[in-house]
Amino acid sequence: MFILKRQDVEISTIDHPKRDQQVPILNYQGQTFRLISVFKASQEEEAKSLWRDLTDNKGKACVLLEEPERFSIWGKIRLDQLGSDTGSHSNISVFIQASILLLQAVYMDIEDFLGTRQAALFEKEMVETLQKWQFPQVSSPEGVKYLLEVDPLTTPVPNWQEYHVITLLQDLHRLGKAYFGNTNFAHSVADKLQDMPEGERSLFISWLNQSPLSKLWH
Hints:
Elements: E1 2-5, E2 10-15, E3 22-28, E4 31-40, H1 44-57, E5 62-66, E6 70-76, H2 89-114, H3 116-132, H4 141-149, H5 162-180, H6 189-192, H7 198-210
Parallel strand pairs: 1-5
Antiparallel strand pairs: 2-3, 3-4, 4-6, 5-6
Helix pairs in contact: 2-3, 2-5, 2-7, 3-4, 3-5
């Protein structure tokens, strides 16, 4: 659809009708969009590539917002759809569980193959990522340590939204590629999620394949 500048649009937050959290909403010419994905200013090509893929190949109505510090992609939605979209409470909990398991898998691989010093650096960079994007409940060194150690299948997960999961997995892929020098760690996602019940694992994989992450994790 469009590439817009910050002054072209109005961004606000609304209360989610079914969950105790706020959802960022972009308004443009009477149309409403919700946040799908966020990129750093240096990732302009990645942002435009994903935006074109979503609009041209997947037929989604999306806008690309260009700001000084970042690029963000927003998908068109009717506000009455918020309560029934893919971020339904049970689904989003599964996505959060899976993303934490993938984070732990990458961390353990770094520790096993590259050593504890590299693992500590990775942990520090994850803190910076979660602080930059203001992740609820875990934007601290203690929060990241908790994520790396917790069993997300038996413990309440953080109160994130779908775009938090997407942002986490985007940055996790970027960091993993930098540490390992390749993207092999992002293959065979299902194998890394063996501890999840089969139905929930399938739900996550299905969502992943339809999400902006499909080219990164598979």
